[in-house]
Amino acid sequence: AAKNAGKNQVALFTPELREARLERTRLTTDLRRARERGELTLVYQPVVDLASGDIRKVEALLRWNPAGRRPVPPDVFIPVAEESGLIVPIGRWVLEQACADVRHWHERHGVSVTVNVSGRQLREEDFGDVVLDVLARYGLPARALVLEVTESMLLATTPAETARIVGTLTRLREHGVRIALDDFGTGYSSLSYLRTLPVDILKIDKSFTPVSGNADHDRMHAFTRAIVELSAVLGLTTIAEGVESPEQAALLQQMGCPQAQGYLFSPPVGAPQIDGLLHSIPWRQAA
Ligand code: C2E
Ligand code: MG
Ligand code: MG
Ligand code: MG
């Protein structure tokens, strides 16, 4: 190791990197205790049918509010949880909580919950069993659950691991669990993943959500339209992420995109607020 220490080793001792590593260690230690301290919560963001305004799904999004500190955003703590392996027990808790919460939303309103899963979870041998077990314990039809996976999840996997993940997802799908490909368009080889992975739903990343006023917007619209059409041809349901304005919603609907989520409809909110939204959908009354 000493022979190859060279440049890389030197970089490890810059103050910035040392500080960053210390912060990661601190985060990992705190995250390890977060669940038992009740610092983890789930919020839910509605996924809306653009034609009717109905809420079809809610996406479960994890929040961490450490005692005595500012909330840590998911983009910071999820990678820490993945590297430390903590995402496995935390992910199980997310699945459990999401299934508990969706039960009466599904019974009364036909709403499904979408849960983000990381590659680390999918690589666990018993992931499929864990999912089916949670569904059974809550008496939840598989239709009520959507698992969101990303293209990047497969980046570091060996062909054998990829095959096993595909096998797990295929088995869950045969039970009726649906699979969504999240952040579509941001990966390196989106199309090949679309061919590899068993998928029911395609979520267009918010960077493809059309913005009017963008100098390059005709070109962007062409990309977005092409993704929507590809998705339809493959028989997938398309969801556009990050929809913030009525103009965007109208454009997406014109393009044939059936569903969307974003601040235009609702930010992620607590379970009681989802109850309220399902009881009376504000954007539908406004129309
Ligand atoms: P994601 O799954 O792509 O989730 C969508 C993100 O976009 C969420 O960020 C959401 O709050 C945000 N968003 C929603 N509407 C809008 C909008 O109109 N405009 C903009 N600019 N943003 C919008 P959030 O909650 O910070 O989550 C970030 C990422 O963290 C998620 O991206 C997901 O990859 C990951 N994540 C969150 N919860 C979990 C979890 O339970 N497990 C795993 N493995 N990952 C999670
Ligand atoms: Mg997601
Ligand atoms: Mg996404
Ligand atoms: Mg994302």
UniProtKB/TrEMBL annotation:
It comes from the Bacteria. Keywords: Membrane, Transmembrane, Transmembrane helix. Residues 24-282 form the EAL domain. This is Bifunctional diguanylate cyclase/phosphodiesterase. It comes from Planomonospora corallina. The lineage of its organism: Bacteria, Bacillati, Actinomycetota, Actinomycetes, Streptosporangiales.
